Amino acid sequence: MWLLIGSFLGLMLIGVPVALALAGASLLYILVTGTAPDVVIAQRMIAGVESFPLLAVPFFILAGNLMNIAGVTGRIYAFAVALVGWMRGGLGQVNIIGSVIFSGMSGTAIADAAGLGTIEIKAMKDHGYSTEFSVGVTAASATLGPIIPPSLPFVIYGMLANVSIGALFLGGLIPGAVMTLLMMGTVAYFARRNNWGSDAKFSWRQLGGAALEVAVVACFPLGVYVLTALGLSSNAAVLIALAVLIAADWYFDFSAVMALMTPVILIGGMTLGWFTPTEAAVAAVIWSLFLGLVRYRSMTMRTLAKATFDTIETTASVLFIVTAASIFAWLLTASQAAQALSDAILSLTDNKWVFLLLANLLILFVGCFIDTIAAITILVPILLPIVLKLGIDPIHFGLVMTLNLMIGLLHPPLGMVLFVLARVAKLSVERTTIAILPWLVPLMLALIAITYIPELTLWLPRMAGMGR
Question: What is the 8-class DSSP label of residue 164?
């Protein structure tokens, strides 16, 4: 156990990328101990990605990239300005609401930070906000990306923990709303303390227009329900309601109705059993192509090719991490290291609430040093048996683990969101880290609430018949 873990930590300390450190430590362990032939590495790498749910990963990444080039980010920003720009600290509130909407399309914190973050930070600096505050609120709101569905970490966790990915998606909605309210409260606090005003004139017309767009989207599931009640099949009802919605959007030229429809289509389709999470990822790509090529006509073959190649590059890096981490996790299990670590944790406590505290501390620490996907792949085989033994719902624990790892993305030495925003804002990593520190308060409050009030996560999946 110490050879496996020690060599991994040693490789990390000398600057070896996390995927290579995982693979290298695994190879060294096999060569030194002789417990398995070398070919096992190749076999475990293939087995690590030989999973149907993992097909969702490239499609969700592609959907996020397509949304970025389809002109959706600008429309989301304009909608958020109309909705909350008139509040004190308006562009800070806009930043958060924009991230909430974009989270329903991208599934990753980094896509949110790199996509909307570029627009938001520039706009906030132009309106007189400090660079540090702009970066801090952008970093905090980016953590919503994997909590509000769809979510790439949920796909990986669901595959490893053998739980419903659709239930995980539903479970993220209320925690996402809690995080949003806490962040908006933090912006309001800073606005009052610094005596900031609004950044957009209050206009009943603009606010009414934004509210109308929300109402139009809300009418979609209602229309489907009414048409179904009238005797139409569910497929026919959805097609008719969607056709009416598209016609209304084309006629009135709404700014964000089509973007707001993305999470409705994905969550609604999975909840009603029309498609699996993997098929939902394909539906997200088709919807993104429709918006970029047909509705907004902002996508060209050049930008489409760029989005495709970016997706290939990102998918390759994600899946390489998954393959390397799967070997490492398998060796942890085969060498009884995972069992030893589980026994060590259980020797400290058999109280599930104390365990959740210890798990939070462990995952927060790991998230500062290891990539999110690799951390999930390594930690699930160690912690899940304890979770099940203590009677903790694995869907609840999936939310806790994901939020911890999202907070880890804001920390050095390996916080990817930290580095992305430092580059976007042209700040040093040190100044970016200091800018993010105040925003750990609402994130930690959200983490405590989600950890110790399981119903925040489990109520919706249970209502949909997906929870235990």
Answer: -
Q: pLDDT tens digits for 328-357?
A: 877 877 777 667 777 778 788 888 999 999
- Give the range with max mean pLDDT: 67-71, 274-278, 437-441: 437-441
**Residues with Cβ < 8 Å from 87, sequence gap 6 or more?**
93, 188, 191, 198
Distance CA 406, CA 142 (A): 9
Say if CB 59 and CB 278 are below 8 A apart: yes
Say if residues 270 and 282 touch (Cβ distance below 8 Å).
Answer: no
Please report whether residue 449 resides in a domain: yes
Cα 100 to Cα 104: distance, rounded to the nearest angstrom? 7
Q: Please give the structure tokens belonging to residue 422.
A: 């430092």
Question: Which residue shows structure tokens 């707001």?
Answer: 260
Residues 6+ positions from 445 with CB-CB distance below 8 Å: 182
End-to-end CA distance of the chain: 35
Model pTM? 0.79
Closest CA to 124 of 82, 177, 81: 81
Q: Is residue 366 part of a domain?
A: yes
Say if CB 373 and CB 322 are below 8 A apart. yes
| 79 neighbors 40 (Cβ within 8 angstroms) | no
Find all residues with CB under 8 Å of 309, minimum gap 6, and list them. Answer: none
**Cα distance between residue 36 and residue 30, in whole Å:** 6
CA 170/CA 158 separation, integer angstroms: 13
Collect all residues with Cβ–Cβ distance below 8 Å to 194 and sequence separation of at least 6.
Answer: none
How far apart CA 21 and CA 315 sit, in angstroms, is 19
Which residue from 333, 354, 351, 349 is spatially nearest to 160, judged by alpha carbons?
333
The pLDDT confidence band at residue 397, using thresholds 50, 70 and 90, is very high
Domain count, the chain: 1
Q: Is residue 423 one of the residues assigned to a domain?
A: yes
Residue 468 counted as domain residue: no
Nearest Cα neighbor of 95 from 71, 68, 124 is 124
Q: Which whole number is the average pLDDT over 230-235? A: 80
Q: Are 24 and 7 in contact (CB under 8 A)?
A: yes
Asked if residue 387 lies in contact with residue 432, where contact means CB atoms within 8 angstroms, the answer is no
Read off the DSSP letter of residue 276.
-
227 is in which domain, residue-wise? 2-463
CB atoms near residue 243 (< 10 Å): 10
